Each structure stands twice: as C-alpha cells, then as structure tokens.
Amino acid sequence: MTTSRRTFLKAGALAVTGAALVPKQLFAEAAKRDTILGLQLYTVRDDMRTDPAGTLKQIAGIGFKYVEHAGYSNRKFYGYSAKDFKKLLESLNLKMKSGHVSFGLKDWDDTNKDFTDDWKYTVEDAGTVGQEFVITPEMDEQAFKNEDMLMKVLELFNRSGAYCKQHGLQFGYHNDFGSIPAFNGKGLYDIILDNTNPALVAQQLDIGNIYGAGGRPLQILKKYPGRFKLMHVKDEIKISKTGEMGNNYESTLLGKGLLPVKEIIDTARKTGGTKYFIIEQESYQGKAPIDCSKEDFIQMRKWGF
Asked: What's the CATH fold of domain 36-302?
C-alpha cells in the first residue's frame, strides 16, 4: 500500500461521525476475533536452537499469542517432548495451532498399504502439543519434474488428510517452490489446488514464496476463493544475488517491500477463507530476527490485527 493511500484511509476514518464510528469499531473487533495472528518460529530459528524457552518468552513479550513451529524431529519440539513443550507454551500464555513437518512418499509403506510409524507418531505428537494443523512445507523434489510423480504425491496428501482427520487434525500444504513449472500448459499450483480435496488438505499460501516464483497472491486468492485457511504473511525485496528461495528475492519487514501486503490480507479475510495469518521473515537486512518480529507484529496491528 502506498503512503498516499494510507494517508487517505486515515483521513477518511477521522472524518466519520461518532455515531458511524461505533459500528465500524465493533466490526473491526469482530474481525480480530475471527482471525489468528501468529509467528512462524523459523523467523527466529537460530534463537530457538540455542535458547527456545528464552526466545518464546521474548515472543510472548512482544504480544504474540500464537506460534507455528518448524522444529520437530525425533519426537521432540526444539528438544522438548510434546507434553513438555505444551507446558512451556502454556506457561507463557502461548498456543501452537499449526506446525511444519516434512512429509512425502517416504512416509507411506507401499508394502503394508499404511503410513509409517514415524508419520503416525508425528500426528500423535501434534495432537498432544495442541495443534489443529499438521503442515508439510515442502514436496518431493521429483514431483516438480514429473507429472505422474506429482499426482502420486497429491493422492498421498489426500490420504494423509483423511488419516489426520480421523485423529482430530487437518493436514495441510505450504507452497515451497521457487519456480512454477507447467505440465501440458497447466501451472503447478493450479494442479495442486485442483487435485487436493479441500475437506482433507488445507492450503497455506506463502505470499512471499509464490511472488518470487512469478505468481501473484491477489490473483490466486480471487481464482480460488475460500481455499486458504492459513497464510504466511511476508514482504519481498529484489536483490542482486540468489535469495532464500533460490531466486532473486528475499523477505523483508512488512510494508517495506514489493508486495501489496495489506490488500492481500484484506482479500484473504474477505474471500480467501483465511483465519490463520502467520508472520514469517527469513532474511533481515542486518537487523536481529527478534527485532524484525516485533516490527512485523506492530505493522500487523496497524493493519487491524
């Protein structure tokens, strides 16, 4: 959003009468209640690696109430068991509704026609820690190159969605690609959305990743209304070197980059079906990650969260 438009909106808000302002305030508060603002812990990944408890305390101190993890392995969340990590979160008045875990063909036992024990444990631990969504932030790399492989992976996504649903959770996919190949003239993301069951596979739209790959979040939200229960909220700048997604873009402070982030999140609220807005910043332009998290949080508050 440009400065001139931001000034215009502010001036318009001040011009309304007191009587008209009350229902607008009530509407804004209702919108806040209907959405969840969180922080993807990958934003502060190094801090979470060295001092998870201290880092979470700082996050709570900023004002966050929700976090999304990216640190599960060997049945541990950042070194804590599911029960102990939940206790740590609760002690800081934090909740974790979603998390990122690796999922793919390796998690299906074709001989036994069943999921591996590792995947079953992953789903079990997600439920124990209090998650609602189990999200894979990646796809088997070969699926980007072979349409038959892609369809096999998407079938497995739907199957995982059914399994997670049986256990009171929802499986999800977060777009991870740095480029968007096409099969028979159809884009990769279109194929993914057309071949995953919305009732079984929640979509988490990473607006930064998709932008760097040539996609435009507003167009996608309008083309597939109601499909994106979750969103990674990012802004992007163009750089001269290779960025975090293997292209010439990297993330930056919200409102400081190329994306019309305010317009995107407003559209997601109205027609995207989006409830969970998760801030993620992966590059910092010389700032400390925790300081970026605070600035991003303040910006989202200014935008009505």
From this structure: TIM Barrel (3.20.20)
Q: What is the pLDDT of residues 260-303, one digit of tens each?
A: 999 999 999 999 999 999 999 999 999 999 999 999 999 999 99
* pTM of this structure: 0.88
32: pLDDT confidence band, cut at 50, 70 and 90?
Answer: low
Indicate the domain borders of the chain. 36-302
- Give the C-alpha distances (Å, rounded to integers) separating 25 from 13, 21, 22, 220, 304: 11, 6, 5, 30, 11
The mean pLDDT of 142-159, rounded to a whole number, is 93
